[in-house]
Design a protein that fits this description.
With 333 residues, the protein is α/β, with parallel strands linked by helices. Helix content is 33%, strand content 21%. The protein has eight helices and 14 strands. The strands form three sheets. It has a six-stranded mixed sheet, covered by helices on one side. A six-stranded mixed sheet has the order 6-7-8-9-13-12. The chain has a two-stranded antiparallel sheet with strand order 10-11. Helix 1 packs antiparallel against helix 2. It is elongated, with a radius of gyration of 23 Å.
């Protein structure tokens, strides 16, 4: 499976990059006909071959080296609306595990040790624990059960978690039933709390904050997947309460969260930052306005995590990301 997905993507980009010098030669050759000048093909052909080799080198390095790299991103969010008892509250945000992209349990174990080392108050996972099947998730049960935080591990379902890419299922009813099985597995076996368009409160003395989560919701960016979320239902009864929202697709933020809710902090994943960054720029910007890192709007924040795994098992300039978000109470001036 790994080599098949890498091969398909590498061939696509090889053809794409090889076309560039060939198209340049074709244009130059046509112009040369007008002036009775024969332009040699060799320099363009060698350039195309060199670009193909470079593509394959990048992809092989991304598979054997890049996907084993990880980074911890430190983020601070300051708000006057945060209850004082939660000043210094530490959130570890992870996303897009895609256990199918891990061929060795040791890699996943190493990532989870990094997460535990951040001393989180809570671990928030923004969906896509798998790429296609629940069976692959079960293979990593012991590693997944090792995640611990003071207030637990909280999860939502992403587009892949509804098994729309699993060809064994042919109807929405079958896919929904499998998503319910995944929810039950995460809740009862892994000990994670799965939020399906719902919320709960975390208390510190007399103060509280809310964590809400929705099933996958598309906005008006990127590619259409599946619409299962209900933001109004998830936020019911939370007026006036500092709220952290888990929503898999970041395009949901501008489409509904900002205009129709009071949510202060929104956490998303989904884009993987395209698993490729060139000079720090993510290719996901070609499809999403908010696709990588932190975004702020009038004191409200969206953070898009680049993910731990991926649909294709490689990462180029885009290591797996563990985000540590520390909440701070802003004192009124």
């Amino acid at each position: 499976m790994f080599w098949h997905s890498i091969f398909v993507v590498a061939v696509f980009f090889s053809i794409l990059f090889a076309l560039v010098p060939n198209l340049l030669w074709l244009v130059a050759w046509c112009i040369g006909l007008l002036f009775d000048y024969h332009l040699p093909y060799a320099p363009f052909g060698w350039s195309a071959a060199a670009l193909v080799i470079i593509v394959w080198v990048f992809f092989l390095c991304g598979h054997y080296i890049g996907r084993f790299r990880s980074k911890v991103t430190q983020v601070e969010y300051v708000s006057t609306e945060l209850p004082l008892a939660f000043d210094g509250y530490r959130i570890v945000h992870i996303s897009d595990l895609h256990v199918d992209s891990f061929d060795k349990p040791g890699h996943l174990e190493k990532l989870f040790k990094q997460i535990d080392g951040q001393n989180p108050d809570i671990i928030l996972f923004t969906g896509d624990i798998t790429t296609s099947t629940l069976e692959r998730v079960c293979e990593y049960e012991s590693e997944l059960c090792s995640l611990h935080a003071r207030d637990g591990v909280v999860s939502v379902l992403g587009n892949h978690d509804f098994f729309i890419y699993d060809h064994r299922f042919h109807t929405d009813e079958e896919r929904s039933a499998e998503a319910d099985r995944l929810t039950q597995y995460e809740d009862q076996t892994l000990g994670w709390r799965v939020l399906r368009n719902e919320s709960f409160l975390i208390y510190r003395c007399s103060d509280s904050i809310a964590v809400a989560g929705v099933d996958n919701i598309n906005g008006n960016q990127g590619f259409h997947t599946i619409q299962k979320g209900d933001l109004k239902r998830a936020l019911k009864g939370l007026d006036g309460i500092f709220t952290i929202l888990l929503t898999h697709d970041p395009s949901h933020w501008k489409a509904e969260v900002l205009p129709d809710s009071h949510v202060q902090v929104t956490l998303s994943g989904h884009t993987h930052a395209a698993q490729v960054r060139l000079l720090g720029w993510s290719l996901a910007h070609l499809m999403f306005n908010e696709c990588d890192g932190r975004y702020d709007h009038e004191g409200r924040m969206l953070y898009v995590n680049a993910g731990l795994g991926g649909v294709v098992p490689l990462r180029i300039g885009c290591p797996s990301e563990i985000t540590v978000i520390t909440l701070h109470k802003a004192r009124n001036q």
